[in-house]
Specification:
Number of strands: 10
Strand order of the largest sheet: 1-2-10-7-8-9
CATH architecture of the largest domain: 3-Layer(aba) Sandwich
Shape: globular
Structural class: alpha/beta
CATH topology of the largest domain: Rossmann fold
Largest sheet: 6 strands, mixed
Order of helices and strands: EHEHEHEHEHEHEHEHHEHHE
Length: 317
Amino acid sequence: MEQISEEEKPPGLTPFFRARNLERTLGMSKLFLKFEGASITGTQKDRISYLHVRRAMELGYDTISVATCGNYGASISYFASAYGMKSVVATPSFYAGERNEEIYENGATLIQKNMKYEDLVEYMKDKSRDENWYDASPGSFNSTVDILGYESIAAEIVQNLGHSPSYVAAPVGNGTTLAGIYSGFKKLYRKGVITTIPRFIASSTSLGNPIVYSWKHGYKKIQVLEPSTIVETQVNEPLVSFRSMDGQKALNSIYDSKGVAIGVNDEDMKKFAKIINSQQSIEVLPASASSMSAAFRNLSGRTYSGEVVVILTGRGH
C-alpha cells in the first residue's frame, strides 16, 4: 500500500451540502447532509483511526489492535499499514462481513472468537495489555482520542454554515460519534465561536440499543440490556448493542442538548437509504440512513427555524 505523506492532513473535510431534493421529497426545510462515507475507507472511523495510529507510534508501539464487526477494523488496518505499523483485528466468529477480506489485504492479523462484540472488546483489552499492543477499541484506556477525533465534525459544520445549526441527527451504536460531535459544539460554544448548541437527534435500531432504551424510559444513567432481548440483523449490526461503550456520554449529550433518541426499524433504514440514493445520488449504509429517518420522524410537519444537519456515517458497499 502506498505510504501516507507526513504532510497529509488528518481525515476529515467530508462533503457538506444542502439537500434540496430531499427537502422537496420529505417536506423539510434547510436540510443539510454531512457525508462521512466519502472518507478513505468509507466511514467516520477514519477520523479516529488516523489519530490512534499516530498516537500509538508516538508512544513507541509497533502494533495496534481493535475489536470490531468490520468498519473500524478496516479503517485501523488501513492506517496501520500506511504508516508501517502492524495491526491485530478481532471480530466475532459468526461475523462473515465483506470487510474481512479488506482487513486481510491491509496486512492485519485477524482473530476470530465465538463472542458477542461487547465481550470481545473486553477480551481485546486484556489481550492487548498482555501482548503490549496499543488498544484502539471503544471504551479502552485510549478512547479519549475518539471524542477528540469526532469533535472535528462539529468544527467543520460550523465552518461551513458560519454558525451552529438548530438540529444535528446522528446514528448511535456505542454512542461515541454523537458524544464527540456534541463535545465539539460545546467547546466552540465555550470559546464564543457559536452562541447556541444544536439539539441532538440520536438514531439507532429499534431492536436493541441502550441509548435509545435509556432515553425512551427516562433513565439518566445508561442501562445495560439483557443480551437475549436484542435482535441483530445484517442491517442493524452497526447499531445494535446490549452495552454501549460510550453510552453514558451520548445519553448526557442528548439530555444536555434537549434532544431525542429514536429507534428505527430495518425497513425504514433501507427505505431512507434508497430515498437518499435516488434524490441525492449518495449510496449510504442503511444503518447510516437511520439518522435521516429519525430527523424526518422528529421534525416532519413541524415548524422549526434554523438548519437541520444529518450525519451520514458510512457509504454503501
